Amino acid sequence: GAVVSQHPSRVICKSGTSVKIECRSLDFQATTMFWYRQFPKQSLMLMATSNEGSKATYEQGVEKDKFLINHASLTLSTLTVTSAHPEDSSFYICSAPGLAGYRTDTQYFGPGTRLTVL
Amino acid sequence: AQTVTQSQPEMSVQEAETVTLSCTYDTSESDYYLFWYKQPPSRQMILVIRQEAYKQQNATENRFSVNFQKAAKSFSLKISDSQLGDAAMYFCAYLDSNYQLIWGAGTKLIIKP
Predict the structure, then answer these.
(1) Which one of A83, A99, A118, B17 has the fewest beta carbons within 10 angstroms of its own beta carbon?
(2) Parallel, antiparallel, or unpaired for β A67-73 and A57-58?
């Protein structure tokens, strides 16, 4: 099936620094990718929709300047947490709907990135 | 707006037994997709089963099957012959017209050996 990778899988950083998380579709092109945040024992919360070649669409309550999303190619979307603070510590997951041979009505998920801000 | 409700925060089942996880949803659309995803301790989201609303036949994938009741807006997941590897969080999800998934709160499934 379609494969989505994320890097890094785990990151620890100091408060005030910025962290970049990469999401790649390995065997299919993804014009759209979704970024989620998941707190322990909770469901996934959609943060934003990343669109190749255009600005991301953010969900209500998500700070655009805090969570910068760039979707520069058909296989790569990045999420940068700027000036991270301890409350940004969470599990971040990306997903992409299948295209070109894969089911477009099914999302394929990356393995997630655990961010810890000290 | 669409909503998805999972009313069982936690379920437990004896190994080799059958368990059913409940999910209800609300929508005004007539054509849509529903999913069950599994999230094991590794936290990788794994697609368990999908159902197209226009199909009356319930989807099945090996030991996993759904009971899709469109009129009642119910979409339950049945796991037969439960195995230790089935222990995970299970999320019910609805795909909206923007290809965004609307998620339920999840059900933690515990398998008793």
Answers:
(1) A118
(2) unpaired
d(CA A40, CA A98): 27
Query: Residues A55-102: pLDDT tens digits?
Result: 999 999 999 999 999 998 989 999 999 999 999 999 999 999 876 444
CA distance B14 to chain A (A): 23
Mean pLDDT (whole number) for A17-21: 98
Candidate from B35, B45, B106 with C-beta closest to A93 = B45
Residue A99 pLDDT:
60
Give B42's DSSP letter.
T
**Distance between CA atoms of residues B21 and B82, nearest Å:** 13
> Given an 8 Å threshold on Cβ–Cβ distance, is A105 in contact with B47?
no
Distance CA B82, CA B14 (A): 7
The tokens describing B110, both together, are 């515990």
